[in-house]
Amino acid sequence: MNLDAHSAVVAVTHDPKLDDAALLEALKSPAFYVGALGSQKNNDARRKRLADSTWPPRRSRVCAAGGPEDRLQDPPEIAVAILAEMTAVRRGVQIPETIEPAKVNVTAGCEVPQN
After folding, report:
1. Cβ distance 34 to 61 under 8 Å?
2. Rounded to a whole number, what is the largest CA-CA distance in the chain?
3. Is 39 helix (H, G, I), strand (E, B) or coil?
4. 44-83 pLDDT, tens per residue?
5. N or C: which end of the chain has fewer CB within 10 A?
6. How far apart are the C-alpha atoms of 110 and 15, rounded to whole Å?
């Protein structure tokens, strides 16, 4: 894929066979953002699968892209949330665990790289 430090990867198929393979490959790269769509339940299951995988590096970099999908229903809203999170990660901005008033968990374990 020739990913570099300017690349962002978001898995959106909802098929663990496809998403997990793409995430594991992206985690090998210097991509600044690696995320996947999914509900909190699906993201927790994904983290467990990745933890059980044979490729351990930088696992904590997998973001719940746009926050748990079960709280964002509108595709344009999800897209904007993902882009906002990517921008924050790219610029090194810490996003609070919850944002009032909706209390949407935006980071869900996403690690902001330190410059």
Report:
1. yes
2. 40
3. coil
4. 888 888 877 765 555 456 777 666 555 667 888 888 888 8
5. C
6. 21
